[in-house]
Amino acid sequence: MPIQKITSGIIQDGAVVATEIADGTITGAKLTANTLANSVFQTGSVENYIASTGRPLTNRNLIINGAMQIAQRNTSVTGITTGDYRTADRWYFYVSSTGTWTMNVESSAPTNTEFRNSSNVICTTADSSLASTDELAIIQNIEGFNCQGIKKGTSNAESITVSFWVKSSNTGTFICELRDEDNSRQISKTYTINAANTWEKETITFPADTTGAFDNDNNSSLRLFMWLAAGSNFTSGTLNSTAWASSVNTNRVVGQLNLANRVGNYLAITGVQLETGTVATPFEIRPYGTELQLCQRYYEEQSYQGGNMMLTVNQAYSTTATHGSFFYKVKKRAAPAVSASGTTISALNATAGSAGGTIAFAEISEDGTRVSINGASGLVAGNASAVYFSYAKIKMDAEL
User: Fold this and answer.
1) What does each C-alpha distance from 319 to 344, 348, 360, 374, 383 come to in angstroms?
2) Partners of 101 in the β-ladder
3) Domain for residue 6, yes or no?
4) Whole-angstrom Cα distance, residue 103 to residue 96?
5) pLDDT of 280-332, one tens digit each?
6) pLDDT lower than 70: segments of the chain
7) Alpha carbon distance 343, 352 (integer Å)
8) Which pLDDT tens digit goes with each residue over 113-158?
9) At residue 310, what are phi and psi to the nearest 5 degrees?
């Protein structure tokens, strides 16, 4: 039967007795305290949460691996004197003539929080007198494709809020910097560590920038710098802290203490979030598998820790060489550098070939690579062969 209008009465005991609700008759006065509307859409509700931040409930955090959960390369590296990706994925430790360092991922984090890991850097050889060009920082590079929600360079550009937990042996002033790599613009803000060896929560909001849009590509567009030390080339001006401006090195790190001035100095960090808007929302916890895949877009490592574990099935194209295809678990940001370490064995599927040969990668793309074994013997051209690894790793590096 057709649906009919409610034309009279109220809804009571299952009977329809209400008059028709005319346009505009539901007013704020009728939705009093403790009604459905107020109980659902109160402060802190989903509605207000989205409205206050301008962001959805997911995909708010532009930082990857902010909780330091993923460490494909290592969990501890000593003797660091140059910049590289060392431990926690996506975090570049920039060391330029500022002593020697150890970098770790540890099961240490602020109590009563959602965090279990942190990344720390510890000075093992000091540099108490910095040269003008010296630099020391923890950096994350953010891909242009991921920066478009900031709307930088438009009249609707968004503010950016960075929040994180930090602990250090040293109290005093530190610098957090955002740098626009596409337009050579930057802004820096100070934060203060008030108590040594104590986890503190920091929240820093950077104003919007209506000048210079981020490139919509797979290159580095936005860089987050957590400064630890810098020479006079970066500290001798006036800190550029109120508005984005063309990058001037002398104005980037003014006021930063020198964490490299004593052996044993350290800084630990976790819970790093960078999001649009002026509100530091609760840390966005992504499933471990999701976080791992986000990291693997930039770096992937596959380990073969048993004896004679198969890597690929190839085809022999001569008595000494084979080739085949190897595909990554995650499509890379760009064609990666691919390398292998360990023992390789080449053998025919049907007719035994001798062990040995060296592995090579060619025709490398964002999705996969050709794997070749050269210098084997006893192969039959056209026959299948298996490429085995023993206690080895394949590394695919497409980092920014």
Assistant:
1) 17, 10, 17, 10, 10
2) 80, 123
3) no
4) 15
5) 999 999 999 999 999 999 999 998 887 778 888 888 888 888 899 999 999 99
6) 1-56, 344-356
7) 18
8) 999 999 999 999 999 999 999 999 999 999 999 999 999 999 999 9
9) -75, 130
Q: Distance between CA atoms of 310 and 332, rounded to whole angstroms?
A: 23
Q: Are residues 30 and 101 in the same domain?
A: no
Query: What's the rounded Cα separation, in Å, for the pair 91 and 72?
Result: 12
What is the rounded distance in angstroms from the CA atom of residue 271 to the CA atom of residue 273?
Answer: 6
In this structure, the answer to whether residues 207 and 175 fall within a common structural domain is yes
Q: Are residues 148 and 263 in the same domain?
A: yes
* Confidence (pLDDT) at 23: 59
Residue 241 identity: S
Domain that holds residue 381: 299-397
In 3D space, the residue among 340, 363, 337, 352 whose CA is nearest the CA of residue 386 turns out to be 352
Amino acid at 279: V
How many domains does the structure of the chain reveal? 3
| Residue 61: inside a domain | no
CATH number, domain of 315, equals 2.60.40
**pTM tops 0.85:** yes
Going by the DSSP 8-state scheme, the letter that residue 378 receives in this structure is S
> Is residue 277 a part of any domain in this protein?
yes
The residue count for the chain: 400
Of 296, 321, 352, the residue that ends a domain is: 296
Is 131:218 a contact under the CB 8 Å cutoff?
A: no
Burial class (CB in 10 A: 0-12, 13-18, 19+), 204: middle
Q: Which regions of the chain does DSSP assign to beta strands (E)?
A: 11-12, 15-16, 76-85, 92-106, 118-125, 135-143, 160-168, 172-180, 185-193, 200-206, 220-230, 245-246, 266-276, 299-304, 309-316, 322-327, 337-348, 358-362, 368-374, 384-397
Residue type for 190, please?
T
Cα 139 to Cα 90: distance, rounded to the nearest angstrom: 8
> Quick one: tokens of 378?
């006893």
- Half-sphere exposure of 338 toward its Cβ, with a 13 Å CA cutoff? 22
